[in-house]
Amino acid sequence: MPELPEVQALVDFLRERTDGLAVAGVELGSINVLKTYDPPPQALAGLLVSGVQRHGKFIDLDLDGLHLVFHLARAGWLRWSDQLTTTPVRPGKSPIALRVRLSDGSGFDLTEAGTQKRLAAYIVEDPQKVPGIASLGPDPLADGFTEADFAALLAGRRTQVKGLLKDQGFLAGVGNAYSDEVLHAARLSPFALAAALDEEEVARLYAALRDVLEHAVAAASGKPAKDLKDAKRAGMRVHGRTGQACPVCGDVVREVSFADSSLQYCATCQTGGKPLADRRLSRLLK
């Protein structure tokens, strides 16, 4: 799943390549991808791309005051082409969920692999009309997001910090991969309770959150869309590296599996050397 750093890179990529262009047309490859019906996709034809921005994991194309907003979800991606084929998208015949054609012949496809179709697109007059955007928490890289703000969000929450970091209503843009990386950098257990963190641990977590994301954004910056997935994997220290050596201490990276996801961590760096039980609602082994 693309998270804040990859989504920001896609925003920068699109902003550069759509500058001065207009939308020539929008084609649907999946009727389910579009979550709004008014205005229709045809309303975007001829509109100038006047801006591209990010809201959490959402990408927002400003088209002369109308907004094409999309969320790539777990298995979605953006595939850019400098010269799109003239053959129209045939609904249900390919992984293409939505195609945007631009006035110079270029454009992009939103694709989705797998059977669980969660990629979502919206055409709205105001991005805040998209439910997922309206409910977003603060952006962790916003200039005004301070350690005190972060501490206030954590205060009193008897919730495991791993789950909080992934909660888009708590913070916008962090998912499973970067929450693993942040907690490893902060030397905190994924199952530590937010309300139980002391002042020094909160400071470590805030610093790790900003540092990990800022470095990931810098690493993704300037890369074409097709290279972002590999760049993300290459930058991971623990996420997706079960069985490999922790780059900090050399201990083996361990995994906890759930019904539809997993997390990775280093016991030496994060849990005082105690492995986490690999079962749902895991607790530290005694």
UniProtKB/TrEMBL annotation:
Keyword list, A-Z: DNA damage, DNA repair, DNA-binding, Glycosidase, Hydrolase, Lyase, Metal-binding, Multifunctional enzyme, Zinc, Zinc-finger
The reaction(s) this protein catalyses: Hydrolysis of DNA containing ring-opened 7-methylguanine residues, releasing 2,6-diamino-4-hydroxy-5-(N-methyl)formamidopyrimidine
UniProt-listed GO biological process terms: base-excision repair
Keyword presence, NAD: no
InterPro entries tied to this protein: FPG_cat (IPR012319), FPG_N (IPR035937), H2TH_FPG (IPR015886), Ribosomal_uS13-like_H2TH (IPR010979), Znf_DNA_glyclase/AP_lyase (IPR000214), Znf_FPG/IleRS (IPR010663)
GO-annotated molecular function: 8-oxo-7,8-dihydroguanine DNA N-glycosylase activity; damaged DNA binding; DNA-(apurinic or apyrimidinic site) endonuclease activity; lyase activity; zinc ion binding
Annotated TM spans: none
Cofactor annotation: Zn(2+)
Domain called Formamidopyrimidine-DNA glycosylase catalytic: residue spans: 2-93
Domain FPG-type: start-end pairs: 237-271
Source organism superkingdom: Bacteria
CDD domains (UniProt xref): BaFpgNei_N_1
Keyword DNA-binding applies: yes
Gene3D superfamilies, per database record: 1.10.8.50, MutM-like, N-terminal
SUPFAM superfamilies: Glucocorticoid receptor-like (DNA-binding domain), N-terminal domain of MutM-like DNA repair proteins, S13-like H2TH domain
Family per similarity comment: Belongs to the FPG family.
Protein name: Formamidopyrimidine-DNA glycosylase
